[in-house]
Amino acid sequence: MRVVMTMVVLVLVLLMAAMPIFSQAMDIHQMRQIAAKNNVTCILVFGDSSVDPGNNNRIPLAPKSNFPPYGKDLFRGHPTGRFTNGRLATDFIAEAFGYTNIIRGFLDSNMEKVDLLHGVSFASAGSGYDELTTNLSYLRHYKIHLRELVGEVKAEEIIRNAIFVISMGTNDFLQNYFTETTRRKQFTVDQYQNYLISSMFRAVKAMHYLGARRLAIVGVPPFGCMPIVETLDDESQCDDEYNQVAFSFNSKIKQTLVTLKATLGIQNAYIDIYSVIASAIKKTQDIRFQGDVERVLWDGAGRIRRYMQRYEYVC
Ligand SMILES: *[C@@H]1O[C@H](CO)[C@@H](O)[C@H](O)[C@H]1NC(C)=O
Ligand SMILES: *[C@@H]1O[C@H](CO)[C@@H](O)[C@H](O)[C@H]1NC(C)=O
């Protein structure tokens, strides 16, 4: 929750406010005021399992989380397809902006037309920059629906004042590069990072073409500390080499944002989730966590096996 609130504040402060001082203590009221003052209309979300609210429920063969214990703290324990026990960071961001307390998946069959106005998520668990461009067809569809609903001028305005959030990259490294072999044979780590960056660049250009003017890109977390890496490495320590890859990829994202601002004039913010999580891990040295964690394994044939495991974890 603290990580999430920090993220909300970061999005607001970096993207909107001419606020000199970073205030941890900003309350939801202040956030709403800033959002309203800046005419923020909604958030449109692109990414992986970190922000997929259940789109994968509708995609055959895609990784799913529509079974317990996922969602155990949300909607009386009903799993929605979010890869979490509760809501996602993007749900909290939408709430902080004052529209809705959940962001629906664009493929959600329960979606009502009015939900389009509050923002949607196009995210799909398991995806990444490696294949992002294809998913922009959903943004085109979204825009068509929006136009039908509110007319062309209003639709353009909504998109212009929306915050586009992109949160992905972990699967590209952990799955597409370090687990599968095709990309590894093709690229060095550095070359692969550049390949992903150029894919991101193309995608942002396409978003800009469709009307996007405000962008928040979430960097990759220290994925060397993720439970899945511990499973693959068969040890309970962070993998420093992976963390170094994450760190240098984030540097490239930051450079790219500078270029995007200079070339497209798109207002943007980099969300440093790496530092937020790394410092959370550091600060809780002596705290033991207990709970259920999802273990994910890729077998030799490229199939994914997922299972839940009880764990006790000392950071
Ligand atoms: C918000 O909208 C109003 C009315 O259209 C406009 O005057 C103002 O400049 C906008 N503010 C920002 C920060 O875009
Ligand atoms: C994103 O694109 C990939 C690649 O085409 C596709 O498999 C996936 O289903 C798309 N995501 C969504 C939410 O449909």
From TrEMBL:
<dbReference type="InterPro" id="IPR036514">
    <property type="entry name" value="SGNH_hydro_sf"/>
</dbReference>
<dbReference type="GO" id="GO:0016788">
    <property type="term" value="F:hydrolase activity, acting on ester bonds"/>
</dbReference>
<protein>
    <submittedName>
        <fullName>GDSL-like Lipase/Acylhydrolase superfamily protein</fullName>
    </submittedName>
</protein>
<dbReference type="InterPro" id="IPR035669">
    <property type="entry name" value="SGNH_plant_lipase-like"/>
</dbReference>
<dbReference type="InterPro" id="IPR001087">
    <property type="entry name" value="GDSL"/>
</dbReference>
<keyword id="KW-0732">Signal</keyword>
<comment type="similarity">
    <text>Belongs to the 'GDSL' lipolytic enzyme family.</text>
</comment>
<feature type="signal peptide">
    <location>
        <begin position="1"/>
        <end position="25"/>
    </location>
</feature>
<dbReference type="InterPro" id="IPR050592">
    <property type="entry name" value="GDSL_lipolytic_enzyme"/>
</dbReference>
<dbReference type="Pfam" id="PF00657">
    <property type="entry name" value="Lipase_GDSL"/>
</dbReference>
<keyword id="KW-0378">Hydrolase</keyword>
